[in-house]
Amino acid sequence: MPDIRLENVTKIYKSQTERRRRETAVQDASLTVEQGEFVFVIGSSGSGKSTLLGLMSGLVRPTRGTVRLGDKDLSMLKLVSKNKVSMCFGYVPQEMSLMRKRTVAENLELAVRVRGFGDKHTREARIKKVLGLVGLPGAEKKYPVELSTGEGRRVELARAIINSPPILVLDELTANLDDDSIWDIFHLLNDINNRGTTVIMATHASRYVNIMRRRVLTMVDGRIHADVRGGKYGDVAGPGRGPSKPI
Fold first, then answer.
1. Is 18 helix (H, G, I), strand (E, B) or coil?
2. Quick check: helix, strand or coil at residue 78?
3. What angle (nearest 5°) sits at the alpha carbon of residue 245, between those of residues 219 and 231?
4. Is 70 left (phi over 0), alpha (psi -120 to 50) or beta?
5. With a threshold of 0.90, does the pTM exceed it?
6. What are phi and psi of 97, to 5 degrees?
7. β strands within the chain, DSSP E
8. What percent of the chain has pLDDT over 90?
9. pLDDT tens-digit map of 156-191
10. Helix (H, G, I), strand (E, B) or coil at 26
11. How far is residue 207's CA from residue 204's CA, in Å, rounded to a whole number?
12. How far apart are CA 62 and CA 26, in angstroms?
């Protein structure tokens, strides 16, 4: 599995309200996520977390700087190569993205077909297994409108992991879930990570970040304000800069 490397990356968007205004979502971000790491990305709303995840996964093209997956510059890839690179990622966006007119099974089957996995029986077995993993056994025939917000997020996680990608990128996956559901998901993600999958997760679930003590990136106004390994929610001191302290 390749590392992800950001080198002096900046992303600037055109303002939706003022024609000539530009908004900097991420500024001068440099970091490396090694294969098999578990990384939390934290920060207030609008701090640049979602854009940073989009840059890491190749979904957002940087305005300046370079994003590399192994030896590949993601912004320079042709369409065929981009499609191959996308198979390295399982991605859950911040907003629900299930197709409303398709059942849970149909949503998941589309993800499996993209990778060309097996015949119909093999795909059905894979769908059944992954729904069991996320705590939704028997949900195949339900439509997204019949699911709670939390159940919908579980289905999106199932879709992200169904093809066993080497990298998971998860944007506020646990928002609006109850404590039991959040704990179950973190247990599952921990197991997946222990088998070698890289997990990059934006979250406000401070209690669980503090329990897991993994690498914590803190975003403030589009900048990486802190990068602490084995950190807690709000730690700002990094390696070689003394003990961590809360913001």
1. coil
2. coil
3. 60
4. left
5. no
6. -130, 20
7. 4-14, 22-33, 38-42, 64-69, 72-73, 89-92, 167-171, 198-202, 215-220, 223-228
8. 66
9. 999 999 999 999 999 999 987 888 889 999 999 999
10. strand
11. 9
12. 9
